[in-house]
């Protein structure tokens, strides 16, 4: 028998029971559910990561839908429990859903939602921040000041790299990778080399147009190139940012061999998922190459870091905060709640999950649709005509 889990309840007499495994920012997501006759239960347990047993206890015997987190293991056991409780909807409060067994969800007829679009710019901004912090050694320099070591300006003090005119490499030029590339190109006049399974046409057009603009103003134009292999990016780029999804093809995409192909003074940024990088190999590479720098938002065994990483001065580490702006986190909560609500109410799914602005406008009611259901096709869900 699972132990009881502490909860906060909104609209106790609501017809549909929706559980959120965590408190989420803002109140719009709660209001939208309550207005549509949902009883909302929010888990208030102190521990950060809930176990499968905790979530089974939360689901109980009657549950219409769950909003969950990327730290939870949504596999066969949980989807079976949700289905037994009458549930038909689950949404991750995240765009990435590598913690979810979508096949198992589909088997039990459970729709799986995610939250694309609302976090693109925020996440790209953190990748850009880490790129700047690493190239200009901001964290090291901050530590130096606080330690009282600064005793006057010196020509060699914390000399870093100028980004202008260097090459930025993007691996996974989807929504976030493309937004990051635009920031680095427009902001710092860097040239682009990217690798993706698909052509990033819009990004290419942007760089071409910006290059023409610079040329017309008498400046050196920026350039772009789509690499035919990932190794080309690793060999040519000065700053490399990783933005693919995590799946079998991207696990340890950056390993010992690939690290050795990168420039000795390159900067590597990871705001995708920790296991995209072999973190043990990375620690070794950082030790051997003191001028190589990394900016990491994600880790292979979160919340832990591999031994030695925390001691490396050439590593900047932050705790998975890439999407942590107020607007984005409130938007993610709204999209996740609307994914679950849409399925409960029998609404169709939104036709373009990359364009979710209509759901985020606080001044008008959201469309009667689920913003983004990743297994919509497999479940045969209708598509919104709005
Ligand atoms: N650190 C954070 O807080 C944070 C925030 C948001 C997203 N993310 C991560 O970023 C990922 C990307 O998000 P997105 O919205 O840009 O997704 P997206 O689907 O728009 O982009 C992912 C891109 O990766 C490419 N890709 C897939 N497999 C590849 C491979 N083997 N090699 C090269 N490219 C490959 C895809 O073709 C696609 O263009 C998410 O899945 C999530 O894991 C992390
Ligand atoms: O996938 C995601 O959305 C992030 O990791 C959290 O924002």
From TrEMBL:
GO MF annotations in UniProt: glyoxylate reductase (NADPH) activity; hydroxypyruvate reductase (NADH) activity; NAD binding
Cellular component terms per the entry's GO annotation: cytosol; peroxisome
Family according to the record: Belongs to the D-isomer specific 2-hydroxyacid dehydrogenase family.
Record-linked PANTHER family: 2-HYDROXYACID DEHYDROGENASE-RELATED, GLYOXYLATE REDUCTASE 1
Species per Swiss-Prot/TrEMBL record: Artemisia annua (Sweet wormwood)
Record carries keyword Lyase: no
Boundaries of every D-isomer specific 2-hydroxyacid dehydrogenase catalytic domain copy: 34-348
Localization terms from the record: Peroxisome
Primary location class: other
Name the UniProt record assigns to this protein: glycerate dehydrogenase
EC number: 1.1.1.29
């Amino acid at each position: 028998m699972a132990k009881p889990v502490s909860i906060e309840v909104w609209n106790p007499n609501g017809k549909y029971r929706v559980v959120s495994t965590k408190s989420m920012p803002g109140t719009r997501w709660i209001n939208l559910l309550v207005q549509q006759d949902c009883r909302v239960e929010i888990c208030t347990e102190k521990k950060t990561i809930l176990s499968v047993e905790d979530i089974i206890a939360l689901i109980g015997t009657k549950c219409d839908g769950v909003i969950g987190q990327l730290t939870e293991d949504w596999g066969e056991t949980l989807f079976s429990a949700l289905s037994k409780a009458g549930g038909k909807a689950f949404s991750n409060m995240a765009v990435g859903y590598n913690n979810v067994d979508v096949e198992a969800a589909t088997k039990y007829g459970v729709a799986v939602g995610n939250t694309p679009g609302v976090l693109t710019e925020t996440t790209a901004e953190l990748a850009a921040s880490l790129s700047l912090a690493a190239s200009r050694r901001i964290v090291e320099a901050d530590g130096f000041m606080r330690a009282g070591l600064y005793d006057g300006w010196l020509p060699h003090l914390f000399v870093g790299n100028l980004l202008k005119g260097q090459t930025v490499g993007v691996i996974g030029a989807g929504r976030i990778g493309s937004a990051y590339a635009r920031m680095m190109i427009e902001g710092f006049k860097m040239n682009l080399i990217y690798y993706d399974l698909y052509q990033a046409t819009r990004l290419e057009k942007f760089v071409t147009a910006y290059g023409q603009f610079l040329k017309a103003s008498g400046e050196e134009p920026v350039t772009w190139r789509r690499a035919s292999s990932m190794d080309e990016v690793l060999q040519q780029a000065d700053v490399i940012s990783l933005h693919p999804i995590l799946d079998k093809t991207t696990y340890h995409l950056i390993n010992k061999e690939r690290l050795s192909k990168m420039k000795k003074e390159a900067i590597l940024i990871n705001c995708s998922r920790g296991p995209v990088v072999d973190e043990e190999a990375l620690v070794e590479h950082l030790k051997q190459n003191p001028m190589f720098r990394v900016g990491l938002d994600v880790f292979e065994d979160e919340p832990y870091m591999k031994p030695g990483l925390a001691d490396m001065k050439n590593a900047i580490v932050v705790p998975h905060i890439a999407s942590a702006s107020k607007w984005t986190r409130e938007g993610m909560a709204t999209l996740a709640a609307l994914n679950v609500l849409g399925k409960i109410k029998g609404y169709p799914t939104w036709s373009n999950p990359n364009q979710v602005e209509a759901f985020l406008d606080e001044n008008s009611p959201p469309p009667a649709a689920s913003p983004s259901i990743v297994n919509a096709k497999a479940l045969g869900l209708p598509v919104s005509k709005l």
